[in-house]
Specification:
single chain; 286 residues; alpha/beta; 35% helix; binds 2'-monophosphoadenosine-5'-diphosphate
Length: 286
């Protein structure tokens, strides 16, 4: 399994707090091996108080690129040299590319979610899309979906002020409304619902963000949580006969765009999907 590491090996990594459960190292190292890239991908547990030092250290030693995960996606912007237009709008960076010492930040989360929907032939145009959550992931998905001509976006969040803030930043682009979990029309009218919160994520596998029985029969339910692959939300939606999309396609597509940004090559999606499903203990991918 181990490739030869030499003085030319390019180093990529993930920073987050925590990072121990990430499957990104497995996905990227599998790609490097498969494509013969002389690279290695590691995961570093970086506490918020050490973020500035970590990023300037990466620059000093020439780390070629890194992913950024919870809780650093917003704060990292302060320590890099350039943020692309979409990431600036979203106000979160999850991919940094080191271009000859200039650290450039991007956001591939929204792209990943959109590609996941498209890969299941889900069209956004004219549809009512309900996003659950108003954090970084929801922001990325909301801004990306806003450009796909949706009929309406509802943003449902536990803390209403955060939903209001996100809706405000989308105003003028799209018909968008902030909602609380008591605004049942946000569920009843939805054509597509995306859980952008961490509710249902391991170890809290018996939690679900809302009651699926509120949804229309034709509603598509997507969860960005990928561990477990089948969350309680998706299990309940499936039992009602609704179309579901788990968190793996989004994970894979956002990683594929990161790979493209770093290596300038389109990676094999199927290999990435299989690697991710296998890592999460799912052997039958059908
Ligand atoms: P991320 O960058 O992954 O989106 P985040 O910015 O911390 O992470 O946002 C997490 C989202 O999940 C928020 O919308 C949060 O709701 P609040 O804004 O009210 O905190 C939501 N969330 C987390 N735990 C939740 C729970 N138990 N019930 C409902 N919403 C929850």
């Amino acid at each position: 399994m181990l490739r030869l590491i030499d003085a030319k090996t390019k180093v990529y990594c993930l920073i987050g707090d925590p990072v121990e459960h990430s499957i990104s190292p497995l996905i990227f190292n599998t790609l490097f091996k498969h494509l013969g890239v002389n690279g290695v991908y590691l995961a570093f547990h970086v506490k918020p108080e050490n973020l500035a030092d970590a990023v300037s250290g990466f620059k000093a030693i020439g780390i070629k690129g890194f992913n950024v995960t919870i809780p650093h996606k917003i704060q990292v912007i302060k320590f890099i040299d350039y943020v692309d237009a979409k990431a600036k709008l979203i106000n979160a960076v999850n991919v940094v590319n080191n271009c000859n010492g200039v650290l450039k930040g991007y956001n591939t989360d929204g792209y990943g979610a959109l590609k996941a929907l498209k890969s299941f032939d889900v069209r956004i145009s004219g549809k009512t899309v309900t996003l659950i959550g108003a954090g970084g992931a929801s922001r990325a998905i909301a801004f990306t979906i806003a450009y796909e001509n949706p009929g309406k976006i509802y943003i449902v969040n536990r803390t209403l002020s955060r939903a209001e803030e996100l809706a405000y930043s989308l105003r003028g682009r799209v018909d968008v409304r902030p909602c609380s979990f008591n605004d049942l029309y946000a569920f009843k009218e939805a054509d597509i619902v995306i859980n952008c919160t961490s509710v249902g994520m391991y170890p809290n596998v018996n939690e679900s963000p809302f009651d699926c029985s509120l949804l229309k029969d034709e509603c598509v339910v997507m969860d960005i949580v990928y561990n477990p692959v089948e969350t309680k939300l998706l299990r309940e939606a499936k039992a009602l006969g609704l179309k579901t999309i788990n968190g793996i396609p989004m994970l894979v597509y956002q990683a594929a765009l990161a790979f493209k940004i770093w290596i300038n090559q389109d990676p094999p999606i199927e290999l990435m999907m299989n690697t991710a499903y296998k890592a999460l203990g799912v052997s039958d991918v059908s």
